[in-house]
Amino acid sequence: MTTITSTTKTLPYRKQGEIDYDSLDFDPNEPVRKPDAMEQNPALMKLHALLHRHLTDFGKRPDIFLDVNTIVCYDPANLNIRVSPDIYIATGVEATAIRPRKIYLPWEVGKPPDWVIEIASSSTGREDTGRKRGIYAEIGVPEYWRFDPTGGEYHGVEMAGERLVNGEYRPIELTNEPDGVLKGYSDVLGLSLCWDDGDPLLYDPVADLYLEDWQDTEAARLAAEEGWQNERAARLQAETRAEDAEAEVRRLRELLRRQGQ
User: What pTM does this model have?
Assistant: First the structure.
């Protein structure tokens, strides 16, 4: 199930020369390592799994680029000036042309990422609400979201979403639903991002349902398989009892026949 639809033609990737990777003060082949990644990873991995399944159709959408903790450069004159979003998405782009470059270069892709989210941790919380927010506004990221699994210990709030309007971020309205879930609608995703007791969810307002990730699907498959196996065992048990009853009837009939003789 995918929700993003391309309203314009895919932007052509315009490669601008070779990258001197040896001149970089970072290794684009190594993931950005956070000292407190264990705080972030449960929410980050679940949200990435949901986006990977429902937005990219498990990576089959060539016009949607989704990545985690890789480098976005924003100064063509100096690739060491960079930022590393926890999760970011670009739509209407040549996703397969971006990855071989190892770095997201907006001037080659044709635009900055459309959607960025930062997951709070003790070492990143202040940066997410300060420096990174300023960078994303400067380079023109249309939607910037923050998600704090702790309920606001690091970001000050459980969740926040902002849209870029005339170069400045303005808050996206969030609602506290009767089910206790905090929701905010993303124009980019066409879905609502949700905070549920520290757990990230995606909600489809058109279908009026929460989207499942692969773990939910696997659990449902295993439950269905278990139910089928239990049903099969019960059916076999019933067939065995029926066969035993028929055998007993035959035995009694034969006994009666012999007594009659």
Answer: 0.81
